[in-house]
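Hi support team,

I submitted a single chain yesterday and got back a structure, but I'm not sure I'm reading the token output correctly. Could someone confirm the output below corresponds to the sequence I sent? I've pasted both exactly as they appear in my results page.

Thanks,
R.
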Amino acid sequence: MKKLIVSIATFLPAIAFAQPITDVNSLTYKLTNIGNTFIQILIAFAVIWIIYNVVRYIIKADSPDDRKAIGSAILWSIVGLFVILSIWGLVRILTNTFRTDTTAPTNQFPQVQYPSRIP
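Hi R., thanks for writing in. Yes, this is the structure output for that exact sequence:
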């Protein structure tokens, strides 16, 4: 058990991609990456949920009550996927319309200076 805890503690920064946040640019970059990853996970979950419900719909071919409930689950899954993609697309349209740059300007924000390490 101790070896497992030591291994997790050793490799946790590598798993978490832990790097120091030195300025606002690196903070916004990390938050943007987290947001994009979250959206991609939501899209993947919605697609898997739709496929799962379609398979259930096919399997329950003899029960009309179950098919009705599963059919509504498929419908709401598709609506959820549409909402996720439309909000993502709306943000993209607004970004392109107003010609905003998604990267933060450099050398405009103060940077954190870490103290030098004493050897």
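A quick pointer for reading it: The mean pLDDT is 78. Let us know if anything else looks off.

Best,
Support desk
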